[in-house]
Amino acid sequence: MSSKQFDVVVIGGGPGGYIAAIRAAQLGLNTACIDEWKNDKGGPAPGGTCTNVGCIPSKALLQSSEHFEHAGHHFADHGIGLKDLSIDVARMLGRKDAVVKQNNDGILYLFKKNKVSFFHGRGAFAAAKDGAYEIRVSGAAEETLTARHVIVATGSNPRALPGAAFDEDRILSNDGALRIPAVPATLGVIGSGVIGLEMGSVWRRLGARVTVLEALPTFLGAVDEQIAKEAHKAFTKQGLKIELGVKIGSVTSGADGVRVEYVDAKGAAQVLAVDRLIVSIGRVPNTTGLQPEAVGLALDERGAIRVDDDCRTNLPNVWAIGDVVRGPMLAHKAEEEGVAVAERIAGQHGHVNFNTIPWVIYTSPEIAWVGRTEQQLKQEGRAYKAGSFPFLANGRARALGDTTGMVKFLADATTDEILGVHIVGPMASELIAEAVVAMEFKASAEDIARICHAHPSLSEATKEAALAVDKRTLNF
């Protein structure tokens, strides 16, 4: 079998991989991308977990379920009357699948536009020789590719609960949680992270009674404590039952549902019986079938690929990015690393600032943040000033009928440099971008406070929170 020659081969077509391949091709490098995701007809479905069973389909279901909740509980406030409200779950899932396909097809189009060679199958290291690497593609057609540079972007897999393997029918990962064929009467969620809260919110809005079990004693421990408390209050008011500090025991699945035995925070034995159970206790790096041993690629104790600050592995000209390496498992972090690596290969100076990577939880209210939390600053002993502004006092939020939450600024006590911005409330995922830009340019809270923001807009809450750092809000 003859080998096809490339400057760069990217293994994995998720957010990190496909973006890395496109950027490498833009820089004049002969580039190939290998990805094995299949659609329901067996055809290529690039985009990785994010596009196929993660970010994109979950947002589609969140949007559909939010429309349903508004119709059932909030339209009347606007003078809109409805009778016999119902949900067609099959049609909702069909719309979600259509959104996913649009993204799959969009990536294939971008490959063609940028002259990236796409290979549908699983990529694995075969050998290293003559300053290059052989990559074997196992798929409908066997291929062998040779490249001077290899970028590994194989992503991550959901972590299963010991003794409770995913069957995607009763015990669900993020994949199965996106494909529940009918609204369950009762739904359990183990883990109150991003996936657990988002999927729990989707099915709660559609009518399921949802119980979230979290092992940690605090809710959303990585989030600023004040913001997390506000979010917890909102979710509880909506009907999500959240139990913290639990210790999960046995999980048994049968034809009539799932039984979870656990010990609650007070030490009492409890049983949760639900129709279906979502397990969202984190993700693990995916190197299955990559055959790193064939070339001596080093992994760490978690199974992640070892890399330095520039995403270089222990092997010359082998790079790794995204969920399969250290750092936050975020699609946009993978994208930034992909661009940076492609530019480094081309002799440029790619850059990723981990301190200004935004985080978002797409619940309602949305939660978004960038930079340090107040508890982190206290732990570091750094002197800071804090200012916050509630959406309750924002005119646009009142008109929207969504005044839950606030914007919070943390700034250096001496220099006024913005150290962190934390938002819980409407459109937090969009509002956080202003804070990311400000922090990347080392802005002060005063800089944001002096910028004119459109009225009426939700972004005025950002300006007012910046003003609050100096205790001079104008509308609260």
Automatic annotation (TrEMBL):
NAD(+) binds at G191, S192, G193, V194, I195, G196, L197, E198, E214, G282. GO terms for molecular function: dihydrolipoyl dehydrogenase (NADH) activity; flavin adenine dinucleotide binding. Its cofactor is FAD. The keyword Metal-binding does not apply. It is found in: Cytoplasm. Residues 357-466 form the Pyridine nucleotide-disulphide oxidoreductase dimerisation domain. Gene3D superfamilies: 3.30.390.30, FAD/NAD(P)-binding domain (3.50.50.60). FAD binds at K59, G123, T154, G155, S156, D323, M329, L330, A331, H332. Disulfide bonds join C50-C55. Binds 1 FAD per subunit. Its main location: cytoplasm. Keywords: Cytoplasm, FAD, Flavoprotein, NAD, Nucleotide-binding, Oxidoreductase, Redox-active center. Residues 6-338 form the FAD/NAD(P)-binding domain. GO terms for biological process: 2-oxoglutarate metabolic process. GO terms for cellular component: cytoplasm. Its EC number is 1.8.1.4. The keyword Flavoprotein applies. The active site is at H455 (proton acceptor). It comes from the Bacteria. It catalyses: N(6)-[(R)-dihydrolipoyl]-L-lysyl-[protein] + NAD(+) = N(6)-[(R)-lipoyl]-L-lysyl-[protein] + NADH + H(+). The active site is a redox-active disulfide bond. PANTHER family: DIHYDROLIPOYL DEHYDROGENASE (PTHR22912:SF224), DISULFIDE OXIDOREDUCTASE (PTHR22912). This is Dihydrolipoyl dehydrogenase. It comes from Piscinibacter sakaiensis (Ideonella sakaiensis).
